[in-house]
Amino acid sequence: MSRPRRRATQVAVTAIAIFDFDGTLADSLDVVIDEYNRLAPRFRVKGIDRNELPRLRTLGGRAALAEHHVSLWKLPFIAHAMRRALHRRVTDLQPFPGIIDALRSLEQAGCVFSVLSTNSKPNIAKFLRAHELTMFEHVAGSASMFGKAGALKQLIKRAHYERSRVYYVGDEVRDISAAKAAGVRTVAVAWGYAQREAMLAKAPDHLAETPAQLVAILGARS
Q1: Could you tell me if residue 138 is left (phi over 0), alpha (psi between -120 and 50 degrees) or otherwise beta?
Q2: Residues 131/95, Cβ–Cβ less than 8 Å
C-alpha cells in the first residue's frame, strides 16, 4: 500500500473519498470489544458491557473514555496495544454488507479513494488485500483519536488532493468534527459505531443510511 495506484486517465474524477476504517469499511465492533475487554485489566480500565452499547453509541469520544476510566495519558498505550491485538484478528474482520459493491460502482464513476484511521496501516493494508480492495491510493494509519483533523490535512497535502473535492466518510462524531476542522465535506454513515442521531446533531453534509447511498452522494459529477 506504499505506492499509490495509477488513476485511469479516461475517467474524470467525480469526488475524492477518504474513508475511516473501523465501523465504516470494516465491521470490527465485536472484535474491538473482545480485544479491549481482554486488555482492560492490564491497564486498569473499565471493560465494555455489550448491554450498554445503545447508550454508549450516543456518547462522544471523551465522554466514553471518562466513563471507562481511560485517562489521556493511558490512551496512547491502550491504542498501541489494541493495534497489535487487532493485527492478529484482521482475518476475522469482514466488510460491511454492500460496501464492496458501492466502492466498485464509485470507482467506475471516477471516485478516488484513500483511508485515514486510528487503526494501523499494516492492519488496514492486510484487510484491503484480503478483500481485493485495490482501489485505495493512500492508507494513513495510527492517527491520534483526537488528532484526525491534522492527519487529514497532512494526507490531503501529501496526496495533492483538491480540497474542494474531498469528502471524509466516517461513522463517529469525531470524524465529522475532524472533517469540518480540515475544511472538507462530511459523509456520516449510519451502520457504524455512533448513533445516527448523535451524528446528525453535528450537522454532517450528508448522511448515508446504506452503502448504496454512498454511490448517490459521491458518484454524481460536480
Answers
A1: beta
A2: yes
Dump pLDDT digits (tens) for 16-68: 999 999 999 999 999 999 999 999 999 999 999 988 887 887 777 788 888 89
Q: Which residues are catalytic?
A: 20
The three three-digit cell numbers of residue 116, written as one number: 485515514
Q: How far apart are CA 150 and CA 208, in angstroms?
A: 25
pTM: 0.88
Q: What stretches of the chain adopt beta strand conformation (E)?
A: 16-19, 26-27, 94-95, 112-116, 136-140, 166-170, 185-189, 206-208
- Beta-bridged to residue 208, according to DSSP, are 189
Burial-class residue 109 by CB neighbours within 10 Å (0-12, 13-18, 19+): middle
Q: List strand residue ranges (DSSP E) for 14-96, in order.
A: 16-19, 26-27, 94-95
How remote is the C-alpha of 183 from its chain's centroid? 17
Quick check: helix, strand or coil at residue 209? Answer: coil
Say if residues 203 and 187 touch (Cβ distance below 8 Å): no
Whether the CB-CB separation of 143 and 157 falls below 8 Å is answered with no
Helix (H, G, I), strand (E, B) or coil at 200: helix
Cβ partners under 8 Å of residue 32, min gap 6: 22, 82, 86
